[in-house]
Specification:
109 residues, Single alpha-helices involved in coiled-coils or other helix-helix interfaces, 3-stranded antiparallel β-sheet, binds zinc ion
Length: 109
């Protein structure tokens, strides 16, 4: 595969991943199963090309059961120390994300 072709494939894949998450968001209320299917498709595309999902999207699904997460519906968000804790109501497990932006801000002060 030529380099510029690969870049194109990756750009296309990222676009498709973003799109799948958008669709999952829209369909979630009516069809949770389909939303979860979109997440699994997006993950498959990412894995195939070894892409890391942006942190914004990583927070939209549970890393344990891969359910699409909607805060206030099937996910609770709490902050603790320097971390944001996501509690998945589907499988009752936690995910922790560090506050990267906040830390950077403090360093600049
Ligand atoms: Zn879960």
């Amino acid at each position: 595969m030529k380099i510029h072709r690969k870049k194109e494939v990756i750009r296309e894949a990222k676009h498709r991943i973003e799109n799948l998450f958008e669709q999952a968001d829209l369909i979630f209320k009516d069809n949770k199963k389909l939303a979860n299917r979109y997440v699994s498709l997006a993950r498959k595309i990412g894995m195939k090309l070894n892409l890391r999902l942006p942190s914004r999207l990583q927070k939209r699904f549970c890393k344990h059961c891969y359910s699409f997460l909607v805060p206030g519906i099937n996910c609770r968000i709490r902050t603790r120390e320097n971390k944001v804790v996501y509690y998945c109501l589907e499988c009752k497990k936690y995910m922790r994300f560090p506050f990267i932006k906040e830390k950077k801000l403090k360093r600049n002060l």
